[in-house]
From TrEMBL:
Protein name: AAA family ATPase
Natural source organism: Vagococcus coleopterorum
Coiled-coil region list: none
InterPro entries per UniProt: AAA_GajA/Old/RecF-like, Bact_Antivir_Def_Nuclease, P-loop_NTPase
PANTHER family reported in the protein's UniProt record: ATP/GTP PHOSPHATASE, ATP_GTP PHOSPHATASE
The organism's place on the tree of life at top rank: Bacteria
Pfam annotation, one family: AAA_15
Boundaries of every Endonuclease GajA/Old nuclease/RecF-like AAA domain copy: 1-115, 159-300
Length: 638
């Protein structure tokens, strides 16, 4: 381990940020959130550690008062102390006298002034040599000229080895095998001595580096006999990064040095398999090297999560960078359920967790996105009753402030058992995240909390809901609703919303098919599929809605499906045997029809048309509209 902790204050858009580092680390976030600013702050620290490379561009340009920039880095010397000896060991012990194995170095700089350090130059020089840090921004490196990487290779050379090699070469030049070489050097030396000239000696490391290049045949890299220009940017970028990581690993492995490598968007130009190869190697090298990766690649994030890396989410709040540590895996199963799709959500503004493809089809429809552009900021994830993934999203939301909403059908939480027009309500115990499983415990905690007086309403609400388990409701028709339960549903919804859960009154199909939209549904079935429904005489409009929900895989208000109501048969209604499964795309087809026949009317074509369309949508799809407004509210309050 090399760098353990970094603290940055007042550096550009960073007001204050402190983070710990382990072997594998990643900072994730969308473009422009400030990931690269973190890298630049660390780079500025090391650029000025033993040299002067100051700039006034490091200060917050949006602030009237330029507060001093302060960067502190905590270094771990435990491994180096374990293997050091002699004078070097004594120097380290004198440095670490009051700090055991950790050492904190702080740089402060005011505008138009030089940096100030909490330690002297000699100590900083030791840090510079013992804890080398290499930066790689794939957007700015030359992919065909790798000469810069020789500077890293030079750190592989031990000073003692360099002196011995130089001495051996000088001794060997004197023997007969090197007589021709000596002849050429004597010719040059003769003129130089006569004219008082000398050659400024390279340091030992540079001399050995040149010999190494000579031994390898030169300093220009080629691949399989071809110039690097022959290959794609992706191939060259991958090989460059891999070479840097490999040399860093060998430096830590062979020298008394602890290497850190910072990679900014290493995924640039790499196809997915190249990213996999890169991350496989990085994971292997992380046994000796600390890697800090700044990325917006879901594939890199997936790999790091599966390897137990430390993850930080970067976002912008009030023009300043915000940093939150994300939870690691507490459940080994999480590693096997996280794909690139789930990983991509950690770059999102909002996560909407749903339990089926119908919800994805609905909230991705072009009509909804035209009316409510806020949906473009929403990542819709089909957790499909996958509690492991949902649990991970919950943890991430709680830790990082990433807004989340879990949208479920009501039957996820309660069920009705029907007998002789009596419906007995029960809370479902199988749903792991249901707050109704732990209502007794919630009441107990609320009573013990400091703000218990302010919790009286919530306690009363929970107690009332507890009493409703096994309660019977009377309903004369399977197709009707019960006004008494409609009031209960409001309390259920409030309890769920405290846990970022929203339940539809029945199912998502019930949100689409309602008393307002039913006539358009029937017209669509008639126009597109030549289906005409023949209802029994005297049937009420609300009962027609319930039947249509059943036929399109929804449920009644009492959460009964078509299998519970044998008198409703699809064959009696769908005369041409057309079936509408959840994955048949009927939602898209119906909304397309509604968009053309309703929203395409002339009255919505004026300058105020968009607002009028939203009003019409609110009137026709009140439950869907309410869901979107909740999403909008949560986004605005994040």
């Amino acid at each position: 381990m090399t760098i353990k902790r970094v603290s940055i204050k007042n550096f550009k858009s960073i007001d204050s940020a402190t983070f710990d580092l382990n072997d594998l680390n990643a900072f994730v976030g969308k473009n422009g959130t400030g990931k690269t600013t973190i890298l630049k702050a660390i780079e500025y620290f090391f650029d000025n550690l033993i040299d002067l490379n100051i700039s006034n561009d490091i200060f917050d340009s949006n602030s009237l008062y330029h507060k001093p920039v302060e960067i502190s880095i905590e270094f771990d010397f435990s491994r180096i102390l374990k293997y050091s000896s002699g004078v070097y060991e004594m120097k380290l012990f004198s440095m670490m006298l009051f700090n055991a194995e950790k050492y904190i170095v702080t740089m402060k700089q005011e505008k138009n002034k030089l940096p100030e350090w909490n330690i002297g130059y000699d100590e900083r020089y030791i840090i510079y040599n013992s804890h080398p840090v290499y930066f790689c921004d794939t957007r700015s490196i030359s992919l065909t000229d790798w000469s810069e990487i020789w500077n890293v290779v030079g750190d592989l050379i031990n000073a003692k080895d360099a002196r011995e090699i130089t001495r051996e070469i000088s001794d060997n030049i004197a023997i007969s095998e090197f007589s021709k070489f000596k002849k050429y050097s004597n010719i040059v030396n003769s003129f130089m001595e006569e004219n008082g000239l000398t050659i400024k000696s390279d340091n030992k490391k540079d001399s050995i580096l040149k010999l190494l290049q000579q031994q390898l045949g030169g300093m220009e890299f080629i691949k399989q006999g071809k110039e690097l220009e022959y290959y794609s940017d992706g191939t060259n970028s991958l090989n460059y990064i891999l070479f840097l990581c490999y040399i860093g690993f060998e430096i830590s492995n062979n020298r008394l040095k602890d290497v850190t490598i910072l990679l900014d968007e290493p995924e640039q130009g790499l196809h997915p398999k190249m990213v996999d190869e890169l991350m496989y190697k990085i994971n292997s090298y992380s046994k000796k090297v600390v890697f800090v990766i700044f990325t917006h690649s879901p594939r890199i994030l997936t790999s790091l999560m599966n390897k137990g890396g430390t993850l930080y989410r970067v976002r912008v709040l009030n023009d300043h960078m915000m940093l939150n540590k994300m939870y690691g895996f507490s459940d080994e199963r999480e590693q096997f359920f996280i794909s690139d799709r789930e990983s991509s959500c950690f770059f999102s503004d909002f996560i909407l967790c749903v339990e089926g493809v119908t919800e994805i089809e609905l909230f991705s429809h072009k009509l909804l996105r035209e009316l409510f552009p806020v949906l473009f900021k929403v990542d819709i994830v089909n957790v499909d009753s996958n509690d492991v993934v949902l649990k991970l999203f919950y943890k991430t939301s709680k830790k990082t402030g990433l807004p989340i909403l879990v949208l479920n059908d009501l039957d996820k939480f309660i069920t009705f058992t029907e007998e002789s027009n009596k419906y007995q309500m029960k809370y479902k115990r199988k749903t792991s995240y249901s707050p109704f499983k732990t209502m007794d415990e919630q009441v107990r905690k609320l009573k013990l909390s400091i703000s218990k007086d302010g919790n009286k309403q919530q306690i009363s609400q929970l107690k009332n809901l507890l009493k409703l388990n096994d309660k019977e409701f009377v309903c004369e028709s399977k197709f009707d609703s019960i006004p008494e339960f409609d009031e209960v549903f409001k309390d259920i919804q409030q309890i769920l919303m405290r846990h970022d859960i929203l339940a539809t009154r029945t199912t998502i199909e019930g949100s689409i098919i309602n008393i307002k939209t039913n006539k358009w549904l029937l017209r669509w079935l008639r126009d597109e599929y030549e289906i005409k429904f023949n209802y029994e005489k005297g049937i009420e409009a609300s009962q027609k809605v319930a039947i249509n929900r059943l036929l399109l895989n929804g449920k009644t208000d009492m959460l009964l499906s078509i299998k519970h109501i044998p008198e409703v048969k699809k064959d009696d209604y769908f005369s041409n045997k057309q079936t509408f499964k959840k994955t048949s795309g009927w939602v898209t087809e119906f909304l397309n029809y509604y968009s053309e026949k309703v929203m395409g009317q002339k009255q919505y074509m004026n300058k105020n048309g968009l607002n009028m369309k939203r009003k019409r949508f609110e009137n026709d799809f009140p439950e869907i509209y309410a869901i979107i407004k909740i999403i909008e509210s949560k986004l605005n309050s994040k």
